[in-house]
Write a structure and sequence with these properties.
By secondary structure, the protein is of the alpha+beta class. It is built from 10 helices and 22 strands. Helix 9 (427-439) crosses helix 10 (448-461). It starts with a helix and ends in a 5-residue tail after the last strand.
Length: 493
């Protein structure tokens, strides 16, 4: 066991030294063709020559859509990206920007969901559905397969989940039905039959009513549930199809969806989004790392100790324990604790901690530095048969921003970025850079948000000097892949 622990420590040290936040699966070579061929985001419209130049780790050119007179993104959204400084052969980030029409599953209407390229809010022309706007970033690790696949399919999973409730969402004045019959018949929360849902439901008698207290569910909660289920189905599809295709690695996923007057921000991983409104910074997501999810991870280790493989302990200590310290009391904490207490050290406590390290150096099982995302179904602890996937959640945290409750100015935006941006810039620094760039442009300049995205990528990448990529203050710049969306709110919502 000790030899394996030494190997785990060595792997942790080497992954930290290389700046990698993830583990890999040694010997897991591609036995099948890729589910989708690798490419940069399709909306960049890169020529083969441009794609080749974009992969240069030494010059690290910044890419944006609309170059060479080609069309800009809907909403005039700004986007920019840059490849890493040599951490991995390919840019493992992916990005998607779509406008998707959701059509009702009602057999009387067209059942096919559509992707459209124009701006649109009202769905199909026959009035059977609605559209949602979608921006997403996928930060891949240990391979590009999961990120590429999710970038092509996650929005369609969201569309499919929304199709199941399209008829309910279209009638915002009627509460969502508590129960749907097999024929899609429904009853609303107040006990009335929902329009066009005549069925076999009968109201409760007086004797039954006290047992049938019902929660009032909003349309917003239905949409949040649809997004959560879409992430889950996306992860299941990756797991299912990896037996037929080469889908290497995993990815963090951050998605922004504008639907029916509200913005939904779904995050699974360490990418982040902020809202800049009237100069104020409002976080729209949280990072999910071994430190931020320590208690969830430890609780799972408590419930299912076999997942630890008899080589890890769920308990956290301030440092590694030495054999000569058995019998002494040391600080520790478990899943139920936010503070620290003392316990007597036992033989079992010599095992490697489930969560080890601090900040960006924290790892789960000495392997991976994020705790939520898609993929990673074959990820194991190095030199062991212990699977890490049970500790990694595909479920996003979904936050909702009601745009109708606020007035937005011409410089109010949402900034989405992979961790290559946030590793070297604070929320305030990002906001100040965006505000400065936007204020230097004319309000009606359609390229101003692209310029803001490019400026963020350039400032976080830095300039190549004798001692590597350096920021303006001579601090080390980001050597990671960097991808950024800048989404305007004024005049769009």
């Amino acid at each position: 066991m000790m030899s394996r622990m030494k190997a785990a420590v060595a792997q942790l040290v080497s992954s930290i030294a290389s700046g990698s936040g993830s583990g890999s699966n040694p010997g897991a070579g591609p036995e099948h063709s890729a589910r989708f061929p690798y490419s940069r985001p399709l909306f960049l419209l890169l020529s083969p020559e441009e794609a080749q130049r974009a992969a240069d780790h030494s010059s690290r050119p910044i890419l944006s859509p609309g170059q060479g007179g080609r069309g800009a993104l809907p909403w005039d959204s700004g986007y920019a990206e840059v490849i890493n400084a040599g951490k991995s052969p390919l840019n493992e980030d992916q990005a998607t920007r779509e406008v998707v029409v959701v059509e009702s599953k009602n057999p009387k209407s067209n059942m096919e969901a559509k992707e459209i390229n124009e701006d649109g809010e009202n769905g199909d022309k026959d009035g059977n559905g609605f559209a949602f706007h979608y921006w997403a970033l996928f930060d891949g690790h240990a391979g590009t397969g999961a990120a590429v696949m999710a970038s092509r399919l996650l929005h369609m999973h969201i569309c499919e989940q929304l199709r199941d409730i399209a008829d309910i969402l279209r009638d915002c004045d009627v509460p969502p039905p508590i129960c749907l019959s097999s024929e899609a018949e429904a009853v609303t929360a107040d006990g009335a039959k929902s329009p066009a849902h005549e069925g076999d439901w009968q109201p409760p008698t007086d004797n039954e009513s006290r047992f049938l207290l019902e929660k009032e569910i909003s349309h917003q909660c239905l949409i949040v549930g649809a997004i959560e289920n879409a992430f889950k189905q996306m992860d299941k599809q990756i797991a299912r199809e990896r037996s037929s295709y080469c889908i290497l690695g995993g990815c963090c996923a951050l998605a922004v969806i504008y639907l029916l007057g509200k913005i939904y921000v779904a995050n699974a991983g360490d990418s982040r989004a902020i809202l800049i409104r009237n100069g104020e910074v409002i976080p729209l997501s949280n990072e999910f790392t071994p430190e931020s999810e320590r208690q969830r991870l430890q609780y799972l280790g408590y419930l299912q100790p076999h997942l630890l493989g008899n080589e890890f302990t769920r308990l956290e200590f301030p440092r590694r324990i030495q054999h000569r310290e058995i019998g002494r009391k040391m600080l520790f904490r478990d899943y139920s604790m936010t503070g620290w207490a003392y316990k007597t050290i036992e033989e079992d406590d010599l095992k490697f901690p489930l969560v080890y390290g601090e900040g960006k150096k924290a790892r789960v099982m000495a392997t991976i530095g994020v705790t939520r995302g898609l993929g990673d179904h074959d990820l194991k602890v190095h030199y062991s048969n212990i699977h890490i996937k049970p500790f990694l959640s595909c479920m996003p945290e979904v936050k909702v921003y009601d745009v109708k409750k606020h007035e937005h100015g011409t410089d109010d935006v949402i900034v989405m970025g992979t961790d290559g941006l946030w590793d070297v810039a604070s929320d305030r620094e990002v906001a100040d850079a965006v505000i400065q760039m936007l204020s230097s442009c004319e309000p009606d300049d359609r390229d101003r948000f692209t310029l803001a995205a490019q400026d963020l990528v350039m400032k976080s990448r830095g300039v190549l000097k004798d001692h590597g990529w350096r920021l303006s203050n001579n601090r080390l710049g980001s050597g990671d892949d960097i991808s950024v969306f800048v989404i305007p709110l004024y005049g769009q919502t």
